[in-house]
Design goal:
Layout lengths: L2 E8 L7 E10 L2 E9 L9 H7 L3 H4 L5 H8 L7 E4 L2 H15 L6 E5 H8 L8 H7 L9 H19 L4 H6 L3 E2 L1 E4 L2 E3 L2 E2 L28 E5 L7 H10 L3 E2 L9 E4 L14 H11 L5 E4 H8 L7
Parallel strand pairs: 1-4, 4-5, 10-11, 10-12, 12-13
Antiparallel strand pairs: 1-2, 2-3, 5-7, 6-9, 7-8
Helix pairs in contact: 5-7, 6-7
EC number: 2.7.7.7
Protein name: DNA polymerase III PolC-type
Organism: Clostridium paraputrificum
């Protein structure tokens, strides 16, 4: 397989606060290049919890390039490529947030998540976290170093490719059981699994999950829901957001920060079938508004400890 594995580390809860990126390029299932860059975030605000995770301090990045300066040097890795990440909903949302912040056009790319793929193909592991899977495939690395994490992600996909007959996008879909994610001009489609697992959150039990109290993602943000959710009623999901410091909005406005939808393939949904809220959010995004659209799966991966695998 040919692909590029990436990993971001962030300075704080904001998705545009990337302070490091790792990039590992693979051709014919062989690693051909690796890059690691420290990044100076837009605001030099580092949360203690984030520092505890990755060990990057403000003084480490104060003389580094901003993402706006770095992007022209690394953009070629993303153009018309298959991009891979472990917990891709996080890393690709960081990429989109950075591109939005600095006013860059989105590259055209496909992407997949090795968390979802490994859950579909690798059964004899205690969990599907990056360090667990890296150990399973025999790769030693320094966890939460963006360069090391990107290479570990690449090693996991190489292992799956070589052992499960997955060679390209078509086999990722058919054999891997994935809906391939994509990023295109000012839009995106998430990577999702076609396979339901017993440990997937599918019923009201989602409310009994341990909240990821270390995330500030929803703190002081206005969150709006549209359409039915599979795992719980909307008022139950709203309680989760409020417990994490979010504010529930009833309609999409310029004050909206996050829209959560049960729709999985909105790219292919005709406008006449889209909800008013979804159409309004897409209109505002097209006109420069910073609104994040999350699938239900992405929402739960951020909000609950059980969903966190990065």
């Amino acid at each position: 397989m040919n692909f590029v594995a990436i990993d971001f580390e962030t300075a704080n809860e904001s998705r545009n606060s990337a302070c490091a990126i790792g990039i590992t390029k693979v051709q014919d299932n062989k690693i051909v290049s690796t890059e690691y860059h420290l990044i100076k975030p837009p605001e030099m605000r580092f949360n203690a919890h984030n520092i505890w995770i990755h060990g990057i301090y403000p003084q480490d990045v104060e003389n580094e390039m901003t993402f706006g300066e770095l992007w022209p040097k690394i953009k070629h890795y993303f153009d018309e490529e298959l991009v891979v990440a472990h917990n891709a909903s996080f890393d690709l949302s960081v990429l989109r947030s950075l591109l939005n912040y600095y006013g860059f056009e989105y590259p055209n790319l496909h992407y997949i998540c090795t968390v979802l793929l490994s859950k579909n193909k690798i059964k004899d592991v205690r969990n599907h976290k990056l360090n667990t899977l890296a150990e399973y495939v025999g790769h030693k690395f320094e966890h939460h170093h963006a360069g090391e994490d990107a290479t570990a992600c690449a090693k996991i996909l190489i292992h799956i490719s070589e052992n499960y007959g997955i060679k390209d996008l078509l086999s990722l879909h058919i054999n891997g059981g994935l809906n391939i994610g994509s990023i295109y001009d000012r839009g995106y489609e998430p990577c999702t699994s076609l396979i339901k697992h017993k440990n997937n959150v599918t019923k009201k039990e989602a409310l009994s999950l341990s909240l990821n109290e270390n995330t500030d993602y929803f703190f002081d943000k206005t969150v709006v829901f549209t359409g039915p959710l599979d795992s719980m009623r909307r008022n139950e999901a709203s309680k989760i957001v409020m417990k994490l410091g979010g504010i529930i909005g009833t309609s999409v406005t310029k004050k909206t920060d996050v829209l959560i939808t049960g729709i999985k393939c909105r790219k292919y949904l005709d406008d006449m079938y889209k909800s008013t809220k979804l159409k309004k959010a897409e209109y505002l995004i097209d006109n420069g508004q910073n609104i994040e659209i999350l699938t239900e799966e992405e929402f739960l991966s951020i909000a609950t400890k059980e969903g966190i695998t990065h």
